[in-house]
Amino acid sequence: MKVLVIGHPQAVLGFSLAGVSGQAVTNADEANQALDSAFAAKDIGIILVTQDIAGMIQARVEDLKLHSTIPLVVEIPSPAGVSPDEPSLSEVVLRAIGIKL
């Protein structure tokens, strides 16, 4: 199973340097199309969506986070970072898939 990043172009670039594929999106239509494509692919196990993009399609992302098991949808911090009251990226990944970064 593969990991796919959907989000801000800088985040997708950063993950690509670590060997994780992704799709850069800048609006809600592109984000919905990227999610549709990811769910159609049978080899995607985890979809990481940056917070800035998830905010554009919040209702859909929340529904997928609650109900989708394969692929697992995880919201990650955008390149701007996280606010002090939100968990860090390493905490999100640890809770989602049990891997400590």
Describe the model:
This protein has helices spanning about 10-15, 30-40, 50-55, 60-65, 90-95; strands at about 1-5, 20-25, 45-50, 70-75. With about 100 residues, the chain is α/β, with parallel strands linked by helices. The chain has a single domain (about 1-95), classed as ATPase, V1 complex, subunit F (Rossmann fold). It has a 4-stranded parallel beta sheet, with helices on both faces. Helix 1 links the parallel strand 1 and strand 2. The protein starts with a strand and ends with a helix.
Which characteristics define this entry?
single chain, about 45% helix, globular, about 20% strand, 4-stranded parallel sheet, about 100 residues
List the helices and strands and how they pair.
Blueprint: E1 2-7, H1 9-17, E2 21-24, H2 28-40, E3 44-50, H3 51-54, H4 58-67, E4 72-76, H5 89-97
Parallel strand pairs: 1-2, 1-3, 3-4
Instruction: Please estimate the helix content.
Output: 40-55%
CATH top-level class: Alpha Beta
Main pleated sheet: 4 strands, parallel
Note the overall shape. globular
* SSE ordering: EHEHEHHEH
In short:
This protein is of the alpha/beta class and 101 residues long. 45% of the residues lie in helices and 22% in strands. It has a 4-stranded parallel β-sheet, with helices on both faces.
